[in-house]
């Protein structure tokens, strides 16, 4: 990649450098990877940018993970909820885990992101730094603001946040989330990750399907929340789901992936119920 | 920009391009062992370094990010004379084989043990999880860690690295390291890329986007204007010489069906133009400016398409024969296309080809009467099996550096066949062999891929016509689309038996896809019959094979040749027959396998383009392997999973291979005693990481009774050694080892003869003994080799003692074995987990037992990958959709079975050097049937194609349609 390189010291400076054709350089495992889909004429290196690292327990049973925290650092931290640590382990390469960052992974908005599916199910939030207004003589924007954004919104409406810098991820500790990832080998790209959470007593489902996208199965989640027999909803869902366009591709046929999604959601639901000690519907 | 960092404890400052990768920086600073196996895909880990104490991929970090950092590269550990305990343990454990990323592995284990002196198996697994190992698997890395722990705790190893064989011998059969181990594990300059001179030019290849097309026009005028461009080679200006790229005997059965560049491209990725320029950037720029007009043709992508009536023809030009031309050849050629862009196909001798029906080769034969056997049987099974197209995926891609030196052409090659490289380079350049010097460097993974001369031909040609040094290295994508691969095959098996478990008839039909060119088009598919049917003590056996040209990426040599596929089909069919007859599979196997002395009449028709050698079964550890393996895996005991969705089953397969090609292969070695009494063995052999140099050194050490460190083996250099057919067909230990043995025995004879003169004794009273001296059994007098050799090389001496050994044979030394699998299958998701895998093999006398075990592990894990994950996927136009490591699906440490064992069955062979047979190829032959049978045992479905994916399982189970 031929690009200008910048090394901002502060998040404000980093955001001021962001243009539509620029990219933030976090861990580098995707942007610098051969075959990456990211192309940029300016790289804004965040390695030396202050305030983007660290894991802290916040009030309200929330854990804040700095965007430049690596997968390995998050995995080592006992403050990070186990459901998220499990998702981190889906990155098979330990060496890559030493480099890849939580914020960088989320910002890629990849359709095979295992973190995305889990974060949706966990109803996680992002703290973003947004730049507004005109650029001044010093290149900085006239205004900048922090914004707390639901992960779902960030992932599903990326155009709104194209120039935003993720400062941190907020994970709730008071949720239960289970997930499962499918890939040909551990090191292969995921072709399906499904996650299901119980958040404030309600079911939330996040799904990443390679070559299709990342989805918050809102209607299915709501249908399950309203149903006396959620297991049946999932069983029906296994047969057909028209809201998703899954192609036949190198990872398998559409029929296979649809089937697998249904089975997996059923299993995840069963697992959640068992965790809660509730009676399991016959699914 | 300027950056400062500390590399291996030395403060350094660099002025770098900010976007330069850290790996590029480190290599330019002399740390050549920070290697690249994936073009920066972040997969293989050959580029691993520690930055501020943390392992990272240097390709995925820009140099600017290293400013202010402390970096440790693998060559910052111990050096050649001061190995660290981790490096030594890796050598002792046998994992330093092709070793392209062995230094990176040493670095990771060092890091792990510093952080955690007593890591668990899971922690070791995690530490190595970013490292791709294809040759030795990961099993003995666990052992290496244990060895380090033991040595740190007690001062010595407690664990055995491998069993010892032949107590009466000193070196042979003793785990005793690897002669090139220290250089490789410490990251010394050893591979082709390390020999490239700073003045080199670079060659890149413009490749066809179409699977089949005529080239209508090529315009290189704009490309030639790019500053720094030296030469662009195309079909318009390359020599009009037809040849083939298979590195095997001469004449090799493969048809000569290609030129360096052709007017018809025959697969997506086929060569269109080779651009030589002074910089890589200029070469790439020029490549992008070449204008090519294509006349796109309809491709044929499968055997079924190729055999269909009216199918497009991959080769449609005239056919020539160097020998044995059929009488109706003119009539046959009258059907050929008149378009000169088709070129021609030259057969060395008849192969049963019919290119006007896309048939590249065919053969059939058998013994007894299979139809009668089928008619009289109690049960007959008939099933068709399909295998996928598999890439070798070595860590080091195909790479070559060629230059003119003193008026001769020198070719640095990562090859299994240096003498065949020389011959084929001679063909395309027109140079005689005395004008070509091939230097086989260390080989960073071969597995058959480097038996084919895939880039040496064009690189050497470019260096010759330009007079400039030329370096060419395949990208990882080119490794997939423009290399040889494992032939996809369709096999139909019909097998009959009696209620008592006797197999009465076997018919094996093979339909193989050789791709656009005929590399090994007969020899590989023949192995699917010749290395499988002789396992059966069955009087009625027949085979019929046809090999088709298609427009898929090329096929060629691959570890095991066609055997893994034929064996998959036959063992699966046998298991199904046992099931049909209500017999226990184990009992059926025991009832029908061959044993020592059984006359193998089936071999008569199974020569590779000639009549086969009918011989009795020689040394054979097959039965012991079966019985021992059945005990280990608790055959007959049904295992239960605590999760009702997971079902567990067991399976196993008999396996065999060969030890080289009797009557075809040939090996030579020249041993000379230096003036200080040490020995240099110039061996024609090609050690590709398997330890063949060590085999030869141990043989010389054993015969000459001298320390291993007093022997150097210089191998694979065509100038210094005598001819050897190379490392393929499991020939290394058997052929090259026997040549070394012959040379050593003759050297000993020369030493004794000279000693008799110097000592004034009768030769028959003399013998040799450690540590390299002649002694008189009669008088007790002693003469050291140093003194003896000094004298013969003095002004009054009789000349250096030199011995020339060689080896040819018609004898067959066949390795046997059995591989066992326990697999768990999820009936709801189709997922398959290989829980246990046991490889039991008879390798005769394993000369390097620890290396032998690691080769068994490596080949077994590779074939587990073939069975479950690997396969090139082509779209409807023949373009490969998964031409990178991540999407292709090689197994890594997470895919390795938790319970993984390799066991050497102790058998002494009659013909091998000190009783040795081959070891590595055979280990590719068992996984597919063993796992397939285990899946049936678990969930009751017969998996008739590989890779055996979860989707296929679900379809077989009727879960999806």
Could you describe the 3D structure shown?
- The complex is a heterodimer of chains A (283) and B (961).
- Chain A is an alpha+beta fold and 283 residues long.
- Chain A folds into two domains: 50-172, Uridine Diphospho-n-acetylenolpyruvylglucosamine Reductase, domain 3 (2-Layer Sandwich); 176-276, 2-Layer Sandwich (Enolase-like, domain 1).
- Helix content of chain A is 31%, strand content 28%.
- Chain A has ten helices and twelve strands.
- In chain A, the strands form three sheets. In chain A, strands 4-5-8-6-7 form a five-stranded antiparallel sheet.
- In chain A, helix 3 (82-89) runs antiparallel to helix 6 and helix 9 (230-239) packs antiparallel against helix 10 (254-276).
- Mean pLDDT of chain A is 90; it is low at 279-283.
- By secondary structure, chain B is α+β, with helices and mostly antiparallel strands.
- Among the domains of chain B are: 2-76, Beta-grasp domain (Ubiquitin-like (UB roll)), CATH 3.10.20.30; 85-164 and 183-188, [2Fe-2S]-binding domain (DNA polymerase, domain 1), CATH 1.10.150; 618-657 and 812-961, Aldehyde Oxidoreductase, domain 4 (2-Layer Sandwich), CATH 3.30.365; 667-807, 2-Layer Sandwich (Aldehyde Oxidoreductase, domain 4).
- In chain B, 27% of the residues lie in helices and 22% in strands.
- In chain B, the strands form eight sheets. In chain B, strands 8-10-6-19-16-17-18 form a seven-stranded mixed sheet, sandwiched between helices. Chain B has a five-stranded mixed sheet with strand order 2-1-5-3-4, with helices on one face. In chain B, strands 14-22-21-20-15 form a five-stranded mixed sheet, sandwiched between helices.
């Amino acid at each position: 990649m031929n690009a200008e390189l910048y090394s901002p010291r502060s998040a404000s400076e980093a955001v001021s450098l962001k243009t539509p054709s620029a990219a933030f350089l976090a861990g580098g495992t995707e942007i610098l990877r051969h075959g990456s889909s990211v192309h940029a004429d300016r790289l804004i290196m965040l390695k030396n940018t202050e305030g983007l690292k660290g894991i802290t327990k916040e009030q309200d049973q929330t854990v804040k993970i700095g965007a430049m925290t690596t997968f390995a650092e998050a995995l080592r931290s006992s403050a990070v909820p186990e459901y998220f640590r499990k998702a981190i382990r889906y990155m098979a390469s330990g060496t890559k885990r030493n480099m890849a960052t939580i914020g960088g992974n989320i910002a890629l908005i990849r359709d095979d992101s295992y973190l995305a599916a889990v974060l949706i199910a966990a109803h996680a939030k992002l703290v973003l730094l947004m730049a507004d207004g005109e650029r001044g003589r010093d290149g900085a924007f006239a205004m900048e603001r922090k914004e707390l954004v639901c992960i779902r919104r960030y992932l599903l409406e990326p155009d709104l946040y194209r120039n935003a810098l993720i400062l941190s991820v907020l994970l709730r500790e008071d949720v239960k989330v289970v997930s499962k990832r499918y890939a040909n080998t551990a090191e292969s790209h995921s072709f399906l990750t499904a996650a299901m959470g119980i958040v404030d007593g309600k079911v939330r489902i996040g799904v990443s399907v390679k070559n299709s996208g990342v989805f918050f199965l809102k209607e299915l989640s709501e249908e399950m929340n309203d149903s006396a027999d959620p297991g049946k909803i999932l069983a029906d869902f296994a047969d057909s789901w028209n809201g998703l366009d899954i192609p036949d591709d190198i990872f398998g046929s559409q029929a296979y992936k649809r089937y697998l999604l249904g089975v997996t959601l059923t299993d995840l639901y069963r697992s959640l119920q068992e965790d809660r000690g509730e009676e399991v519907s016959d699914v | 920009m300027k950056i400062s960092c500390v590399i291996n404890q030395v403060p350094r400052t660099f002025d770098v391009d900010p976007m330069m990768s850290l790996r590029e920086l480190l290599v330019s600073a002399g740390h050549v062992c920070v290697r690249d196996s994936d073009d920066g895909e972040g997969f293989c880990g050959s580029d691993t370094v520690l930055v501020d104490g943390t392992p990272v991929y240097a390709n995925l970090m820009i140099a600017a990010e290293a400013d202010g950092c402390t970096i440790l590269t693998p060559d910052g550990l111990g050096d050649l004379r001061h190995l660290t305990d981790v490096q030594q343990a890796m050598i002792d454990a046998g994992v330093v084989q092709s070793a392209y990323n062995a230094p990176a592995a040493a670095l990771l284990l060092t890091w792990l043990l510093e952080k955690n002196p007593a890591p668990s198996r899971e922690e070791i697994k995690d530490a190595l999880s970013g490292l791709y190992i294809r040759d030795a698997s990961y099993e003995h890395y666990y052992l290496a860690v244990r060895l380090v722990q033991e040595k740190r705790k007690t001062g010595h190893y407690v664990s055995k690295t491998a069993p010892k064989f032949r107590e009466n011998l000193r070196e042979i059969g003793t785990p005793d390291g690897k002669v090139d181990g220290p250089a490789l594990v410490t990251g010394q300059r050893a591979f082709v890329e390390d020999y490239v001179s700073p003045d080199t030019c670079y060659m890149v290849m413009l490749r066809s986007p179409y699977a089949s097309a005529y080239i209508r026009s090529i315009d290189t005028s704009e490309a030639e204007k790019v500053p720094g461009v030296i030469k662009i080679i195309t079909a318009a200006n390359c020599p009009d010489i037809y040849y083939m790229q298979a590195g095997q005997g001469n004449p090799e059965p493969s048809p000569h069906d290609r030129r360096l560049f052709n007017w018809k491209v025959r697969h997506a990725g086929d060569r269109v133009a080779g651009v030589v320029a002074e910089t890589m950037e200029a070469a790439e720029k020029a490549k992008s400016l070449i204008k090519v007009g294509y006349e796109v043709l309809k491709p044929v992508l499968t055997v079924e398409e190729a055999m269909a009536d009216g199918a497009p023809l991959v080769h449609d030009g005239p056919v020539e024969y160097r020998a044995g031309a059929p009488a109706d050849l003119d009539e046959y050629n009258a059907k050929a296309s008149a378009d000169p862009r088709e070129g021609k196909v030259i057969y060395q001798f008849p192969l049963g080809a019919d290119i006007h029906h896309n048939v590249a080769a065919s053969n059939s034969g058998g013994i007894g009467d299979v139809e009668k056997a089928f008619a009289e049987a109690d049960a007959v099974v008939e099933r068709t099996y399909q295998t996928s197209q598999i890439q070798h995926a070595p860590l080091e891609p195909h790479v070559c550096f060629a230059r003119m030196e003193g008026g001769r052409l020198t070719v640095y090659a990562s090859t299994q066949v240096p003498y065949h490289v020389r011959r084929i380079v001679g063909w395309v350049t027109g140079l005689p062999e005395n004008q070509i010097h091939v230097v086989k460097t260390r080989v960073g993974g071969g597995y058959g891929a480097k038996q084919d001369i895939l880039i040496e031909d064009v690189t050497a040609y470019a260096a010759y016509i330009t007079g400039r040094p030329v370096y060419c290295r395949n990208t990882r994508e080119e490794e997939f689309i423009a290399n040889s691969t494992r032939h996809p095959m369709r096999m139909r098996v019909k097998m009959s038996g009696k209620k008592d478990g006797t197999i009465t008839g076997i018919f094996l039909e093979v339909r193989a896809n050789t791709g656009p060119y005929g590399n090994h088009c007969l020899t590989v598919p023949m192995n699917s019959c010749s290395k499988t049917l002789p396992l059966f003590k069955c009087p009625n056996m027949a085979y019929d094979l046809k090999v088709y040209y298609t427009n898929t990426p090329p096929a060629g040599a691959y570890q095991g040749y066609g055997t893994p596929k034929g064996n998959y089909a036959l063992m699966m069919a046998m298991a199904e027959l046992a099931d049909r007859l209500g017999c226990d599979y184990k009992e059926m196997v025991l009832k029908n396998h061959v044993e020592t002395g059984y006359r193998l009449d089936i071999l008569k028709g199974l020569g590779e383009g000639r009549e086969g050698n009918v011989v009795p079964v020689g040394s054979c550890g097959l039965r012991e392997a079966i019985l021992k393996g059945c005990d280990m895996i608790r055959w007959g005991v049904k295992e239960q999973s605590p999760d009702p969705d997971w079902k567990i089953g067991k399976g196993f397969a008999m396996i065999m291979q060969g030890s080289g090609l009797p009557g075809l292969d040939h090996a030579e070695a020249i041993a000379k005693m230096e003036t200080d009494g040490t020995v240099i063995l110039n061996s024609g052999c090609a050690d590709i990481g398997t330890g063949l140099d060590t085999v030869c050194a141990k043989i010389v050490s054993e015969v000459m009774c001298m320390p291993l460190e007093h022997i150097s083996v210089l191998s694979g250099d065509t100038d210094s050694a005598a001819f050897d057919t190379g490392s393929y067909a499991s020939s290394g230990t058997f052929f090259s080892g026997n040549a070394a043995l012959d040379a050593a025995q003759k050297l000993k004879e020369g030493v004794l003869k000279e000693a008799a003169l110097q000592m004034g004794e009768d030769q028959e009273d003399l013998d040799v003994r450690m540590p390299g001296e002649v002694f008189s059994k009669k008088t007790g007098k002693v003469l050291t080799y140093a003194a003896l050799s000094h004298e013969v090389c003095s002004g009054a001496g009789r000349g250096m003692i030199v011995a020339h050994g060689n080896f040819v044979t018609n004898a067959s030394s066949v390795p046997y074995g059995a591989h066992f699998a326990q697999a768990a299958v999820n009936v709801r998701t189709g997922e398959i987990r290989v829980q246990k895998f046991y490889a039991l093999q008879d390798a005769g006398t394993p000369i390097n037992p620890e290396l032998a075990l690691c080769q068994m592990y490596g080949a077994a894990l590779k074939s587990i990958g073939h069975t479950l994950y690997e396969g090139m996927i082509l779209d409807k136009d023949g373009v490969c959709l998964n031409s990178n490591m991540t999407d292709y699906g090689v197994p890594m440490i997470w895919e390795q079975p938790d319970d993984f064992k390799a066991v050497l069955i102790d058998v002494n062979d009659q013909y091998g050097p000190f009783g040795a047979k081959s070891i590595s190829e055979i280990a590719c032959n068992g996984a597919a049937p063993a796992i397939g049978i285990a899946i049936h045992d678990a969930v009751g479905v017969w998996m008739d194609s590989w890779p055996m994916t979860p989707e296929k399982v679900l379809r077989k189970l009727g879960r999806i349609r």
